[in-house]
Amino acid sequence: MQLYDMPDERGHFGPYGGIFVAETLVEALEELRVMYEKYRYDEEFLAEFAHDLKHFVGRPSPIYHAKRWSDKVGGAQIYLKREDLNHTGAHKVNNTVGQALLAKRMGKPRVIAETGAGQHGVATATIAARLGLECVVYMGSEDVKRQAPNVYRMKLLGATVVPVESGSKTLKDALNEAMRDWVTNIENTFYIIGTVAGPHPYPMMVRDFQAVIGVEAKIQMKEIVGRQPDAVIACVGGGSNAMGIFYPYINEENVRLIGVEAAGHGLETGKHAAPLTANSAVGVLHGNRTYLMQDEDGQIIETHSISAGLDYPGVGPEHAWLKDTKRAEYVAITDDEAMAAFHGLCLTEGIIPALESSHALAYAEKLAKTMSKDKILLVNLSGRGDKDMNTVAQLSGITL
Amino acid sequence: MSRIQTTFENLKQSGKKALIPFITAGDPHPDKTVEMLHSLVKAGADLIELGVPFSDPMADGPVIQRASERALVHKVGLRKVLALVKEFRQQDPKTPIVLMGYANPIEAMGVEKFADAAKDAGIDGVLTVDYPPEESIEFNAMLKARDIDPVFLLSPTTEASRVDVIVNQASGFVYYVSLKGVTGSKNLDIDEVAGRVAEIRTLTTLPIGVGFGVRDAATAKAVAKIADAVVVGSRMVQTVESSTPDNVVANLAALTAELRQAIDSH
After folding, report:
1. Which residue ranges make up each domain of chain B?
2. A87 near A140, Cβ under 8 Å?
3. CA closest to B129 among chain A residues
């Protein structure tokens, strides 16, 4: 079989990806591309990255057999890759550590980030504090209201949080605003993008930094069960936790890769965040070409998901490519289905998952039921649910 | 020769520099746009840049983003913009119109379909902010085949080798962004701009427009001394924003006339 070797030099995954930015950003991206190429395989850089992942993040994250939950579901055995146990409580920190180390080597004293739910913002503020970098986080003003605890966490860590009032006042607008800051402050600023989207080299670079998830999982599955799982399942918003666990498995043809998008109120209602599953039109946004939720005029439309981390109208270009080539399958899970899985895991395993990860769990539950007990599913439990307490309580009519 | 080339030739022969105001189509209301275009021409505009509203104008500052948002309230998309230009063309066969916008609305329509429709509407140039030359080779060829000029930005950070790549794809004119940042930023450094424009002249014979940060008559006059065209965007849009539907046309005309006078006195 032909080994997977994507993207090309300008960041294309087939027709997707690329560098679609205003001329004002081209040189900054070129500088980043050159520096990343330089350090990508640099032993000293990789050693420093590995050291921080071990001693600061707490890696490797364990793989846990959710036996009671599997028994209750009835069918395949479900294993969880515990990214929720990382420092700051999600997979996001793997990438921010990598990019911040790169920023330091590039001599940039200031980092900026966009954030939706606040997880990437917190992970950026965390590593910025540790490395002594100035940190500014852009966050839609709607999200600032919804995610007050994370806003306060970022402030405790010394970051400045800038509420974004434009557009829909959510993640995509925060990304627009961060891009504008970057264009204006190119000399001293490194833009830490939190997902596998944006212009090249971001989708590739974020994937590479997150690939530690899949690299560890391959070793651990062999140790624990003596073989690789029948399917790997991860939620997809922009898609960084999914790319992180999928990427090392792409050449393992016998392992199914399943990305789970947010179906929100249901695909048929239009109120969702599932551009791949809904077969949205292909277009250009935030520096790359990919599947995009848009209207007939090509305006980006507002998305809906109970989980702020999946509430994004596009998807990383590599996922678009994996969909078209059928190497990965993409499905969608509604708000209600995700909530049911959330409660199921809480009660049977003593693990409170993030609402994002609950989408992956919900699909695993569906799939496991159709499989025999000797089959194995590996779910990327990308984050813990502490941040979602307010949302979940509200759904039950409780004010905390 | 395209209408843009003809315009620059004529200006050159009469020793004048081009004034290029920018407004967003559909702002404050689509019913006003054609009247505003005619009024800009009457007050001294040589070319007009017409913004295509987009939900996520990443390269624009808050002023132009708000213009997009006002137009989107009235659902003004690319098809409507083309219809407005077609209406403008019925009365004005001469003044070039350059569309400025983002790639996604064009891709949503289909690039070839757009090129045909733009030709039919009487569009003269297309500046697609997030289509760098490397990603738009076929599109540029499609435009040129229809006598439409693909217009590109050059920025203070664009290196000479890259200017070469860009001017290879560009026609009509090139647009030098006079400062780092988004549209509507402040502090244009005229000496720095003069140095860069002189450098770009060694690399291309295309006319050079300068914009981003031209906020008043004095700056317009200074820019006219060094460039072939002065582009005024955010200041125009601010005027639209601070006007009422009743006086917006008159206010824009007054500002354009003031800029015209300043540019002609360079």
Report:
1. 3-264
2. no
3. A22
